[in-house]
Write a structure and sequence with these properties.
Layout (H helix, E strand, L loop, with lengths): L1 E5 L5 H11 L6 H11 L2 E6 L5 E8 L9 E10 L6 H20 L3 E7 L2 H10 L1 E4 L8 H10 L15 E2 L10 H13 L4 H5 L8 E7 L3 H13 L3
Parallel strand pairs: 4-5
Antiparallel strand pairs: 1-2, 2-3, 3-4, 5-8, 6-8, 7-8
Helix pairs in contact: 3-8
């Protein structure tokens, strides 16, 4: 079951379970969780029949307007290693909600987030549309303009020489565990993903890649609805 609730409604028990899920993947989960609780206002929880959390996905829904673009922050997500497709299910459920908002407000919604993992990059392309920069590092002038609009939302100030999608030392207190680094590097090598090296993202120095995506079309939305209704994911 997937439950959506406000960050303010998260109980101490749920927070403890969230931290337990994160523990194998990060060195310092306390500062990571503290930061993400401040950045996001809603969380999707994937629970088993005993209401034990197996995965979660934090997001920040802004106050929407009808006169310009709107941006939704894709925050911290993580899932237990013991059950497949939890992350995909959480992303799909969120996407259905975002799709309805885009239709309701009749305005363009951009999704944005940060990452330093090749595994997540590949998953993003399976869920949402028009990833930029692309896996090859390509982006347009309009994409660059969008990135400059988004950076203040992350409290990030760019330098003139910065790559438009590289956030230097943005997450200096967040480091992956040794085991997770090995897994990430092996995945990147196997799938020939060289984007981070190509544009100068160094996870150990706290660098992050800014990603911008869009809500998929109605065809994929219908696929997500069917999958969630029939528990195929």
């Amino acid at each position: 079951m997937i439950l959506k609730k406000s960050i303010e409604e998260v109980s101490e028990t749920e927070l403890s379970q969230i931290k337990s899920i994160l523990k194998p993947f990060y060195v310092d989960i306390e500062s990571l969780v503290e930061r993400e609780l401040k950045l996001n206002n809603f969380i999707y929880l994937y629970q088993d029949k005993a209401s034990h959390i197996l995965g979660f996905f934090m997001v920040n829904f802004p106050q929407f307007n009808k006169t310009g673009n709107n941006f939704i922050y894709l925050g911290l997500s993580c899932a237990s290693k013991h059950k497949k497709n939890i992350g995909f299910s959480l992303y799909a459920k969120f996407t259905l909600d975002a799709y309805q908002l885009e239709k309701e407000f009749k305005t363009k919604i951009y999704l944005y987030g940060t990452t330093a993992t090749s595994t997540l990059l590949r998953l993003l392309t399976k869920v949402w549309s028009n990833l930029r920069p692309s896996l090859e590092g390509e982006y347009s002038q309009n994409d660059k303009v969008l990135s400059e609009k988004i950076k203040p939302l992350l409290n990030y100030k760019s330098n003139a020489d910065d790559h438009p999608f590289v956030l230097k030392k943005h997450a200096s207190k967040t480091l992956y565990s040794p085991a997770e680094k090995v897994r990430i590097n092996a995945y990147a090598i196997k799938n020939k993903i060289r984007l981070f090296e190509k544009i100068g993202v160094c996870e150990e120095e706290g660098d992050r890649l800014l990603v911008i995506l869009e809500i998929p079309d109605s065809t994929k939305i219908k696929e997500f609805q069917k999958m969630l209704n029939t528990n195929e994911i």
